[in-house]
Design brief:
This protein is mostly helical. It contains 13 helices and three strands, in the order αααααααβββαααααα. The chain folds into two domains: about 80 residues, DNA polymerase, domain 1 (Orthogonal Bundle), CATH 1.10.150.130; about 160 residues, hpI Integrase, Chain A (Orthogonal Bundle). The protein is about 50% helix and about 5% strand. A hairpin with a 5-residue loop joins β2 and β3. The longest helix is centred in the first third of the chain and has 20 residues.
Length: about 300
Amino acid sequence: MSTLPAVVEPVETLPPAQADDDAQMVRLWLARSSSPNTRRNYERAARRFLAHVGKPLGSVRMGELQDYLAGLPGSSATVALAASALKSLFTFAQEVGFLRFNIGAAVKVPPIKNTLAERIMSEADALLMIRQEPVLRNRVLLTMLYGGGLRISEVCGLRWRDLAVRDEAGQATVFGKGGKTRVVLLSAATWKVLAALRGEAPADAPVFLSRKGGALDPSAVHRVVKAAAARAGLGPEVSAHWLRHAHASHSLDRGAPIHLVQATLGHASVATTGRYLHARPSESSARFLGCSDLHRNERTKLIQ
C-alpha cells in the first residue's frame, strides 16, 4: 500500500537579527543619519519613550505607543518630531529582523503649522549682521552661511583644499547632508574675504579655526551668530539656519531660478525649495479686492 509524503507546512522566517538588545538596536538606527542634529533629536525621543514604557521594544503594544504620543506635552512640532522618530525606529527594527511587527506603521504624524515665514529675515538685517561683525574669521563665517547658503555642519567641515579659483571669484566643494557632495559658486566679494582670511594656511587646514587650532565646532558657530544678531538689534531666536533661509528667499526674490537655488542649497527635492516661494509670495488675490477703498472712505468720514 503506497503512502503519500507528509505535507510540510511552510515556516515563516525572519532575517537574522542585527542587534542583541534595545540599546544596540537604537545605536544602529541612529547611525543611519548623517545629520548630527537629527541624531540628537531622535536619540532624545527614543530615550524618553523607552524610559516611559519601561519595557523592551519587542513588548511594546500599539496602544501604548499611541497613548504615549497622545499624552506627550509640548507643541505640535514636539509631538510630530517624537512621532516621526518612533515610526522610524520601529520601521528600522522590523526591517533588520529585530522586531516581528512594526507597530509604528499605524501611527500618523500630526500636521504642524508652517512657520518658515517667521524665520526669514530681511536682506538689510542679514547684511547688517555681517557688516557689524568686528572679527574677520566670524565675518567670513557669516558671509558663507548667508552668501553660500551653507549649513553649520558644512562650514565647520570646510578645508582650504575644498576651495578653488573660478574665473574672477571661486567655488566651494561642500560635503553636505545625506553624504552628498555639491559645488557652490561664490561671488567675487565672498571670495575676496576668504582670500584675506587664509593667509599662509596649508590646504588641509580648516577654513574656520577654533582657538585651539582645530576646526570650529557647531556650538561655537551658534555663539557667533547669536552675538552678531544681538549686535544688529535682532532677536535671540535668530540662528545660523536663518541665514540659509535668507539666502534662499532673497535669491528667489531677485529672480534666481528655483532649480538653481535647489542645487546651491543641496535640497533633495525642488518642493523643499518651493516652500520659500509660499512663505513669501510675490502676489496675492487679497490685493485685488476693494478693502483699501473702503477704509479710505471710512477715514474721510472721520475727518468730516
